[in-house]
Amino acid sequence: MSSVYPGDFEEIARFHGHVCPGLAIGYRAAKIAAATLHSERSEDEELVAVVETDACGVDAVQALLGCTLGKGNLIFRDYGKQVFTIISRNENRAIRIALKSEALQRTAEQEALLRKAQSGTASPEEAREYAAFQKSRVDELLSMSEDDLFTITEVTPEAPEKARIFKSVVCHFCGERVMEPRARIRDGDFACIPCSEVYSRGW
Ligand SMILES: [Zn+2]
Ligand SMILES: [Zn+2]
After folding, report:
1. Distance from the CA of 35 to the center of ligand 2, in angstroms?
2. pLDDT for position 158
3. Residues 152 and 100: beta-carbon distance below 8 Å
4. Cα–Cα 20 to 30 A to 39, which of 62, 85, 149, 172?
5. Which ligand has the shortest distance to the CA of 194?
6. Ligand 1 centroid vs 158 CA: distance in angstroms?
7. Does residue 2 surpass a pLDDT of 80?
8. Average pLDDT, the chain
9. Residue by residue, what is the 3-state secondary structure of 86-127?
10. Tell me: the pLDDT tens digits for 43-101?
11. Closest by CA position to 96, among listed 135, 150, 22, 24
12. How close is the Cα of 15 to the center of ligand 1, in Å?
């Protein structure tokens, strides 16, 4: 990894495992959220992130903003969109950060190269070309103006409830514990989701 990147970007790259354009998008979004909402990092649950993608950028949001699945302040909506809504409980504000559709245009040639690299059919020369393209994309994403990169809007904060502790019940079929709101009933007994799905598929 080159040392030209900002220190905090290097840190999240270590967490994520590699440097890639998706990580750079999440990094820029997280930095903008932190600056706008005056919060560096969520130690408890003062920041909540609602992410509409499960791609690389989410790791930047987790590492930089402290919004994590385990703490209950990272909410994933499977929309396949590069959109990050960050809510501040302290300031009772939220901003929605959406990648502009024009931000990452690729030429037909770059598109073809990408396809070859991702399907593993690139020649060594093409693989080098692809790596150089990805690197230049990261540099571009890190230096682009906010306005060229994102559409940023203040939205009404709709923070979900703080993480709750639920009662658990024992699944009659596998003997494992399951939190009550996720439990199902199968033949009059508690069942966890996997055990109830076996049932609903007619086995
Ligand atoms: Zn990545
Ligand atoms: Zn079970």
Report:
1. 45
2. 80
3. no
4. 149
5. 2
6. 29
7. no
8. 89
9. EEECCCCEEEEEEECCCCCCCCHHHHHHHHHHHHCCCCHHHH
10. 667 899 999 999 999 999 999 999 999 888 999 998 999 999 999 988 899 999 999 98
11. 150
12. 10
Match 């540099």 to its residue by tokens: 139
For residue 172, what are its two tokens? 């009659």
Taking a 5 Å cut-off on Cβ, the residues next to ion ligand 2 are: 171, 173-174, 192, 195
* 202 Cα: distance to centroid of ligand 2 (angstroms): 16
Provide the terminal-to-terminal Cα distance of the chain, rounded to the nearest Å: 51
Residue-wise pLDDT for 184-200, tens only, equals 999 999 999 999 986 55
Decide: 197 and 171 in contact? Cβ < 8 Å.
Answer: no
Q: Can you read off the two tokens belonging to residue 5?
A: 């990147």
Give per-residue pLDDT as tens, 137-153: 999 999 999 999 999 99
Residue 44 token pair: 């408890």
β partners of residue 50: 75, 85
Q: Among 114, 14, 63, which Cα is nearest to 74's?
A: 63
pLDDT tens digits, one per residue of 125-137: 999 999 999 999 9
- Please say whether the dihedral angle defined by the alpha carbons of residues 60, 61, 65 and 69, taken in this order, is positive or negative: negative
Report the separation in Å between the CA atom of 87 and the middle of ligand 1, taken as the mean of its atom positions.
24
